[in-house]
Structures are given as C-alpha cells and as structure tokens.
Amino acid sequence: MTKNINNMQRKKLDPAVLISALIIAAVYVAVFVLEQIMPPTSMLFTVLKKAAVYALVAVSMNLLNGFTGLFSLGQAGFMLIGAYAYGIFTIPVAQRAAVYQYYNGGLVQFSLPVIPALVLAGLAAAAFAFLIGLPVLRLKSDYLAIATLGFAEIVRSIFQWDKLGMLTNGSNMLRLFPTFNDFNIKNAEGEVVVYLSTLMPFVIAGVCIALIVMLLHSSYGRSFMAIRDDEISAEAMGINLAKHKQLAFCISSFFAGVGGAMLAMYSNSVQAKSFTSAMTYEILLIVVIGGIGSVTGSCISSFLFVACSEWWLRFLDQKQMIGNFEVPLLRNGFRLVVFSVIIMVVVLFFRQGIMGTKELPDLFRKKLPKKTGKEGEAK
Amino acid sequence: MIANERVLELENMTMQFGGVVAVDSFSMHVDSGEIVALIGPNGAGKTTAFNVITGVYQPTNGNVKLRGKIIAQGHPTGKMRKLYAGSHIGEYGKLVTNTPDKITEMGVARTFQNIRLFKNMTVLENVLVAHHMRLKSGLLSNVLHLNMQEERRIRRESMDLLDMLGLGGMANELASSLPYGKQRYLEIARALATEPRLLLLDEPAAGMNPQETDELSDFIRDIKDKFKLTIFLIEHHMNLVMDISDRIYVLDFGKLIAEGTPQQIQDNPAVIAAYLGVDDE
Predict the structure, then answer these.
(1) CA of B179 vs chain A CAs: smallest distance (Å)
(2) B214 in the Ramachandran plot: left (φ > 0), alpha (ψ -120 to 50) or beta?
(3) What is the pLDDT of residue B281?
(4) Confidence (pLDDT) at A10
(5) Which of A234, A240, A301, B129 could in theory staple to A290 by disulfide, Cβ–Cβ 3.0 to 4.6 A?
(6) What ipTM was estimated for this complex?
(7) C-alpha distance from residue B210 to each of B179, B189, B204, B207 (Å)
(8) Looking at residues B205-213, what average pLDDT do you find?
C-alpha cells in the first residue's frame, strides 16, 4: 500500500498536464507572433484583449458561483471599483488638470506605475467586498444575488456623485492613464519595435487565473468546494463558514477589481455608467456557457462570447447581398437577436456548458477519472 | 472499561422549537472509552440532541459539557427568565455558544443520518477537507503551494485512513459514485480525519442489511480501540445496539424514559411499552 501512495505523489508530471501546458504556451506564442505580423488595428486583437479581460472576470466569478456556491451578481460593481482605483492612481500628474478640469485637477496628485496600480485596484475591490460581505454573506442563494446586485447599482451611482468629484471626477470620464498600447516597446523615433499590447493582457490575466487555479487546488479550494457541496457537513468538518465565504468573496472581488482595471486599460477611459448590471449578466452568461465549475470553460467561452458579440456576428447588422438578392431581416440590431437565440440554444441543449466541470487536462486523459487533482491553468 | 473522565455531559438540556418540546430536560453523560447508545422511536428527539451537542442548535435550556467545560448553554428567556433564574439572574446574561466548526475543533466529530458527503469531490478530497482546520500553513503558502510537506503528510494520512477502511482503491472516484454502504464508511472516515476524541454516529447502520450490520459493529469496536475514541450513537438496529453498547439511554417524546446496560433496557417495562413492545426485534 505504501508503494501505491508513493506512486500517487510521484505522478506529478502527468502527460495530460504536460500537453495542456504546451497548448497554453502555444497560445501565448501564437498571440505574440500574430501581433508582430498582423496590423495592430485588426479586429482580432480587439477581441483577444477584451476576451482576456473577460476571461479573468469570468474565472473570478466562477470561483464564487461555481466553486464556492455563492450566487453573487456584484461583479460589475467590483470591476468598477477596480477600474476607478486604477484610473485615479495612474493618470500622469501632468495630465490631471486636463482630466479633472471641473475639479481643479483632483485630489490625488501623484501617480503609480501600472503593476502596483493593478494590485491596488484589486485590493480596493477586495476591501469593499470585505465590508459588503459582513452583512451580505449571511444571505443564501437568490437573496445573496439580489443584495450583491443592489450593491453594484449603488456603487455605480455613488461613483457618479459630483460631491466625490475630487476623487472620481463625478460623472465625467477618467482618461489619459496608461493603456495596453503603452506596453508596446518603442524606439527613439516613437515607432513601435515590439508589439506587446495584446500579449500583456494575456500575461496579466494568465498570472491571475493561474493564482486562482492554484488556490482551487489547495486546501482552501477544497474547503470552498466542500461548502458548495454541503454547508452543514462542511461546518461539521470544522470549516468556519463565515470566514471561508468571506475569503472566497474577497478573493473573487480582488480579481474582479484587477479585471476592471484591465477593462479600463482596454477601453482607454473609465466611466461609472458603463459598469451596468448588464455587464454582470454578460459575465454570468460566459460562466454558464463555459460550464459552472470549470476554469477552462470560462476562458474558452469568454473568447467565443466576445468574438461573437464584437466580431463574427457583425455582418448581421448590415445589408448583405447574395448576387442580386438582398438577405431579408438584416439590419442594425439583428445581431443581438441571433445572439440571443444562440444563447438560448446553448442553455437549453448544453445545460452543462461547453466543459461541464472538466478542465483542459481532463480532455487528454483516456479514462476520465471524473475529477482529478492537477490541471494546467487556462489561458 | 474503567470510566474515568466525563467526556460528554448534558445537564437538563431542553430544546424547544416554538411550542414543540423536542428534547425535554435531558441529562446524560458519556465517559471516556465507552460506547453509549441513544435509542427511541421516530421523532423522539435523538437527532435534535445530536444537533445540540454539535452546536447546530443552541439549547433552550441547560448545559452541554465537554470534558467538564461548558460548550453550549441556554437559559429561559422572557417572562420565564425571572421565574427560573432566582438569585442567579446575573449569570444568565453570559451564555456560552459555539458554532459547529468550533466544536469539531474541540474533538467532537459526527456523521449524519442521511449521508452528507461532498458529492462532487473525490473520496480522497472528502477526507482531505477534514484536515483543513488543523492546517498550520496559511493562505498564502497554500496558494503558492509552499506547504508541500504538510500537503503530502495529510495526503498520506488520508490514504492510510482510507486503506484501513477498505476505501483505498476508490480514492479517486467521486464520492457520489460509491455504493451506499461505502458512503457510510466514507462518512466515518471523514469524521475520523478530524482527529476526534468523541465520535457521534447518527444511525450508522441505516439501510444496511443484517450482514453489513454485523460487520459494522465489529468495525465500530475496532475504530474505538484504534483511535482511542469514545462513541455515542443513535441507532434503530437493536441487535447492533445491544451488541456493542456499554450503556443505553432511551428517549420517548423528548423525555428520558430509561437508562442502563443493554440487559436492563431489554427488561425495562417502560421501554418495552414505548418501543420494543411494538417492534418484535
């Protein structure tokens, strides 16, 4: 029997994990190479950037909804906090007068480098999550969803309040902070030598998702899943429910905050009114389509979702001619109709989502042991 | 077995849900190394008593003591408070309460009447979860997997435990895919992994056939010796109860109607009337 145990531990280099790691590495290389060859204005990069951001937020939501069993709809609120924290602390001092033109250049008169600001964005979201979590996490299922949804709406309103203008710029947008394009390496003449504006969001999201995956494979991750499966017996196993729910909530919000900051970088500006509950639903949709309880699924479906909504279905919004025949129905907004139908089909016929609860390495295992320990982190 | 330490003691424990008195002024004790059974017809309040001991409910009145220390406590409230408290009213302000996880940490583990495994986790993971509360490494070293030594240790211990209970070969299967009997054993394995001193078993033989029940009684005696446990169990299978119990308490409609050795209980007319008489076991 001891031999058996030793084998179990030594089986670290599972070929399935290796293959998955290679695939992920290949994706990164492909992104890097494509970026150097293709024109930077290509739609592909817009989609990839946004999808990387959404993948991170979707995984953070999955951590809460899929792995801890807390049905929360506050993601947009935490993204907003992250986006603002990032914007407020990274606008270059010289530009502050222009951005805060109605508020005498604003309150904050220093700026942080990008990476510390991203961490700060996460911490700010986590801090809010901690305070909100104290009362809200006593609620269960639908009630928790309603409370967190309400929180997101409240945050959205408060950040537009002009009394806070010195900090948040009221209902005006924050802009001129470093964006993904600032990751490109330029030569002295200002020409771009190496394009990194798509790779960097991939790297940041990848690191964050890797951290989440590692968390899920630790003892804490197991406790979260135990809470999801059965609260009463998790508590009987000595797991402090309040503490662990709070922890999952804060960690999820931390990464949602980082995701929000990245969304700000993606869209070059931050405005509170864009962080609507519709954004939360989009992310929830990604999680559901990908498979509740699958990190890989969330990543894949966020790419499909963003590509469909931003790119592949765009042709439906314009008149299309086949020969002399004008395809009927195609007009502005028809894309959303088709999109809704696709989503309904997915929800009706693929209840488990794309991946169910499987992860990338599970696809390369011959006999599926249903759920096993190791897995590579997703994109 | 020489009983030396009072592992568990209930003092006039009453649990009331609105107008229903589920357990009425129940006093009992379990000494270290004993196997004590709690029996009674359906709805007698046995599981409620377990839930009070494990902190799921706070008792309406009375004390729960673990090794002499009060772990859960209740007093009459409202109008009754003055009436009952008398000169002790000052003490009534301070109530001891503990959440179930705290009580598990104090060394009380339990199983559930209707099996409550973590269904979407593997057998091994089910046991690993029980080790979580005794982890020494913090969140950060867990996330960054710097605690490999500890993780390896708890994996080894969990595997040893599973091997001992005959579940070793199924370690990587989903808990919900196990046959019913094995699920019961897994629940016990999980409880044992919390390193308890007192094990509460809520109808461990429910749904088992006579042969499995026989095996179970050997098994319970076995783990009691191996893990130096004290066992308090609820059970309906009279053969099992009479076979392994040192002492038996009988509840009926929330009231204690008899206590004693299996022989005394079998001869007790009140018990026969309430319970054994209607059932010819």
Answers:
(1) 17
(2) alpha
(3) 45
(4) 45
(5) A301
(6) 0.88
(7) 17, 22, 13, 10
(8) 87
Q: Are the beta carbons of B101 and A239 separated by less than 8 Å?
A: yes
- Among the residue ranges A34-43, A257-266, A331-340, the one predicted with the least confidence is A331-340
Domains and CATH numbers, chain B: 1-107+196-281 (3.40.50.300), 118-195 (no CATH)
Q: Are A175 and A261 in contact (CB under 8 A)?
A: no
What pLDDT, on a 0 to 100 scale, did the predictor assign at position A363?
Answer: 81
Amino acid at site A53: V
Q: Nearest-CA residue of chain B relative to A239?
A: B101
Kindly tell me the burial class for residue B7, based on how many C-beta atoms sit within 10 Å of its own C-beta (0-12, 13-18, 19 or more): buried
Which has the closest alpha carbon to B34: B1, B67, B68? B1
Which of A8, A214, A225 is nearest residue B144 as measured by Cβ atoms?
Answer: A214
Chain B, nearest residue to A66 by Cα: B120
> Cα(A356)–Cα(A363) distance, rounded to whole angstroms?
12
Is the pLDDT at B83 greater than 70, yes or no?
A: no
B177 has a chain A CB within 8 A of its CB: yes
Contacts of A230 in chain B (CB under 8 A): 116-119
How near does any CA of chain A get to the CA of B230, in Å? 18
Q: Are strands B230-234 and B198-202 parallel, antiparallel or unpaired?
A: parallel
Does residue A51 contact residue A306 with C-beta atoms inside 8 Å? Answer: yes
Condensed to tens digits (0 to 9), the pLDDT of residues A118-145 reads 999 999 999 999 999 999 998 888 899 9
3-class DSSP assignment, residue A167: helix
pLDDT tens digit sequence for B88-128: 666 666 778 888 999 999 999 999 989 999 999 999 999 99
Crossing angle of helices A277-290 and A75-90, rounded to 10°: 120
Give the tens place of pLDDT for each residue, B248-257. Answer: 999 988 889 8
Identify from B101, B154, B170, B190 which residue to disrupt to test chain A contact, counting A C-beta atoms within 10 A and taking the largest count: B101
Q: Do A214 and B128 touch (CB under 8 A)?
A: no
Q: End-to-end CA distance of chain B, in Å?
A: 28
* Binding-face residues of B in 236-255 toward A, CB within 8 A: none
Residue of chain B whose alpha carbon sits nearest to that of A219: B132
Q: Decide: A252 and A61 in contact? Cβ < 8 Å.
A: yes
The helix (H) or strand (E) run that includes residue B37 is strand B35-39
C-beta separation of A240 from B104 below 8 A: no
Each residue's pLDDT tens digit, A298-337: 999 999 999 988 888 877 777 777 777 777 777 777 878 8
Q: Which of A122-131, A188-197, B29-38 bottoms out in mean pLDDT, i.e. has the lowest?
A: A188-197
> Which residue, A121, A129, A111, is CA-closest to A68?
A129
Answer whether A239 sits within 8 Å of B128, measured CB to CB.
Answer: no
Pairwise CB contact (< 8 Å): B151 & A211: no
Cα–Cα distance for residue pair A190/A180, rounded to 1 Å: 16
